[in-house]
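Exercise 7.
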Amino acid sequence: MNLPNRITVLRVCLIPIFVIVMVAPFNWGTIDLINAEMPVTHFVAALIFIVASVTDFIDGHYARKHNLVTNLGKFLDPLADKLLVSAAFIILVELGTAPSWIIIIIISREFAVTGLRAILAASEGEVVAAAMPGKIKMWTQTIAIALMLLHNFPFGEDGFPLANIALWISLVFTIWSGWDYLYKNRHVFVNSK
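Solution. The predicted structure, written as tokens, is:
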């Protein structure tokens, strides 16, 4: 397993740590960032989430720069992203921070695209790498999640709703990238019997 794939596996390993820190009944007190008071556990979990998200850029950049792009990496990288984002969004729904209907749309898109990727891999023998709309979608989701985990930092929960706006932007890019992926691969549906 090459280094980019190991970095991707590290991202997957950070997910349960993120979840445990976020939902376990630890009481480490609160922290007050500019206008955003939050439990220390939320702050630590947000840092873990951000570090895990940054590994997405690092592994992809390193793989392309050193010609280490593999089918395993093309499969693992988006899967790791989906696991991380889904875990974070589900926790945010549980905390009452994110509306469940938006998260259902986002996670449904992830399942649909993952299923189509599997069909393409099985029928055409090639794992399709993420396209630019999917990468934009991932970064808008990451920003929205980070802002929600940090309690709408730097504006706080009663200030300018930056986290909510970021969530809506991520929803738009999620729908757009899902439609783009399904449309570009519509031959799977047309040619299936």
